[in-house]
Write a structure and sequence with these properties.
128 residues, binds zinc ion, 5 helices, mainly alpha
């Protein structure tokens, strides 16, 4: 970067650089493209961090709720699922699947083919 700055300074003074005229316009354009690329990368990393923090907060809320019933509480599968939904860790798939999501999805073993065709399937999936 300091090399580029030095070359720009010399170019402003109309000095010849490396035996050729320094093409300041192209160099500035290249720097702008680099800046835009870095800005895009920074935006993507900020977005990743925001999503990560959101997931941590949702997990923390779920764990706090779990500790409210621990060690004597009785969380059955439905209560557990409701808590996961409340904290945004699991969500009902929408629109309802018209066929099994995959061989490992719980909906594949919980519903019959005509129930899928009728759109009456509830399939909860992990939110990331
Ligand atoms: Zn499913």
């Amino acid at each position: 970067m300091s090399d580029i700055v030095e070359r720009l300074r010399r170019w402003e003074k109309h000095e010849v650089v490396g035996g050729d005229c320094f093409d300041g316009a192209n160099e500035i354009e290249r720097l702008r493209a680099d800046r835009d690329s870095w800005a895009d990368q920074a935006d993507a990393r900020v977005k990743d961090c925001v999503e990560y923090i959101s997931e941590i907060e949702r997990l923390r809320g779920f764990v706090d709720e779990a500790f409210q019933v621990w060690p004597y509480g009785d969380w059955n599968g439905g209560a557990l699922q409701d808590a996961l939904v409340r904290h945004g860790l699991v969500a009902l798939k929408y629109p309802p699947p018209r066929e099994p999501c995959g061989p490992d999805c719980l909906c594949a073993e919980s519903y019959l083919a005509d129930e899928f065709a009728g759109g009456d399937v509830e399939c909860y999936q992990r939110v990331r």
